[in-house]
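Technical note accompanying the year-one report. For the benefit of new consortium partners, we illustrate the data format agreed upon in the data management plan: each record pairs a sequence with a structure-token string. No post-processing was applied to the example shown here.
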Amino acid sequence: MINQITSICIGVTQYRGAMTWPTSNPISREIDDFWKESQSLTQQWWVEADRDTKMLMGQQNYGNNSFGFNNMRNNEQLQFNKLLRLHNMIGGYQRDNRLATIVQPGDNDPDSGETADQRSVLINWSMHQDNTYDRISDCFDGAVTTGLNLMNIWMDFRQDPENGEIKTERLPYNSFIMDNYWTKSDLSDCDRVLTRRYLGRRQLLSLYPKAKKDLPLYGKGYAAKDGKFQYLAQNWSQGQQEMYAYDEYWTQDYKSVRKILDTRTGEVVDWDGTYEQFQMFRKYNSNVELITAKVPTVKLHVLINNNVIYEEKSPYGLDRLPFVPFLCYHYPEAQNYAFRYQGIIRACRDSQIELNRRRNRMLDILDAQVQSGLMVKEDALVNPEDAFFQGPGKILFFKNSSNLASDVAPIPSPPVAQGWMELIQSIESEIMDIVGPEELFAQNLGNKDMSGVLLKLKMGAGLTGLRNIFDRLNLSQKYIGEIFDQLIVNNFSPGKIARILGKPPTEFFFDNSFTKYSCNVEEAELTASQRQLQFMQAMNFKQMGMNVPTKYLIEKSTLSGKKELIESMMQEEQQAAQMQQQQAQAQLQQQQMLAHSLGAKAEADLAAAEERKTRAVADIGLAKERASQAEHDRAKTALDNAKALQELDAIPENRLMGLMDFILNMQERQQALSGGEEEDSELVAQRVGSNSNNNEAMGG
């Protein structure tokens, strides 16, 4: 809860004026002057913020006198708090859709991814250790109510005196006062901030043991007498308690730093070395110059009962205010400071008050109808006091001379107008319509035909009217991430970082220029750890069709007993690999046997082919031999025919004709047997015969 007092516990020096009275040191006087300058405007907002808080809590009768209610006459006004539901719906949506803070590598430095991942892991580890995301939701709820809350970020050195632990705290509207004219959400133009907390004696001594001997000098009960922060609850119940005011006074300041200017490129970088070291560096680069610049920083003063006990410049290495504002509606141009910061309650207050007023009036009319009273004629009752007894089961005794029909009659009560219920329903719907459409509050849940996905989409569309509120929330969370990142780099040692990461930090992890040039703090889907974020991102990639190993998904998941599951998967994978190897070997053997079989068959086929080829060659030779023999036979036949023709000349004509008939018959039978080969032989014989005749003619 407390920050700088803890720093004192580890050996920081005290301010010299710690034992002086509150009005005798310059810091206390400066704070008093700041209070006088600022509280007149801030108190205008405090009044309205206090009413907003009361309206949300259900204490909605603060305006009874303004609206004509008299608690003495009407007993007590009933409250029908519709604002609580409205507030819970917006806060519940934010809690269901929280965003995580991560560090993304810059576009100009693709090699900074590992350093950005390490810083993201450390930021989320620190936030989960501190429950920062729950506190962000609390600050958002406070801003939705009153318009403005602050988150204070500090280092706690009680458990870890060397590195410290990052802590956060929500500061409600009534616990701080700041420069009235700041406009920027990072508070870079906010000149001063004063915060107050109240601590009991034991709590103060547990944080600051050295204060035991000094507490009597600080003044018991003085915290309730300085007139500051009167809207804090502790200022209303300090009568019998010993409480001490713990104040932090932050101011914007400037400090001189050395920088190196490269006159050739215009690049400027910070220089932490000495002047002698710079001279040695300049021997290797004559284009550099050592310059001095004024940079903004902050200064802190810690007070107990307005007694200064500690002061420091740039606490924890920060040069910015360690506060992040959470805003709902911010109108810095408004002249009336009461309307500069507003939550969603402010616009609904009048409708809520009017709703309570109408409902109470309607209930008064209904009660009047039940107990409207009696009109009794004089001397009609035996006991006149019986007329004052009201309620069911009452008995009236009349005299014999009385007329029951005319002597006693109920007093007529005013009727309830038919439009009253419609008016009340209209006022209720107005409260919701002021903030957003009905989809925001799931008014149409009775539609059974609507799926859950469609309903969620309609609710998201309904939140478009509140987008500016959630954008301011995201911006505030971004600033929180930047402060966390700076505190980690400035205070965590490499040993602590390596223990959290499981490996040493990268070379550029502690480079102050890394955040400025190489990374951006952004929002991502919130998970319980960085491992879950990696799991969800890997699952998204797998659903997109990318090849993400199952083992990686299981390692990044939060599944209980995943070590045994991974071992079982590895065993199954080994068994599957062995079976696959055996199947591969069997398949290889089968392929080898098939190859041998095919080779043998191929060799047999080749041998058979050679045999058939040899046989075919022999057949061809035989066929040629037969053809040659047939040719020889035909030639011989032709020769014989030629010889026979020569002999015919000597044969008589009658014998010649008979011989010709015999030859023709023989040729016909031979042609029938040899399929036409005789014709060829005859033609050959004729050619041979003609050749012989020609030769003989030439010889003769």
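Partners are asked to follow this layout when depositing records. Confidence is low (pLDDT under 50) at residues 1-21, 70-74, 691-700.
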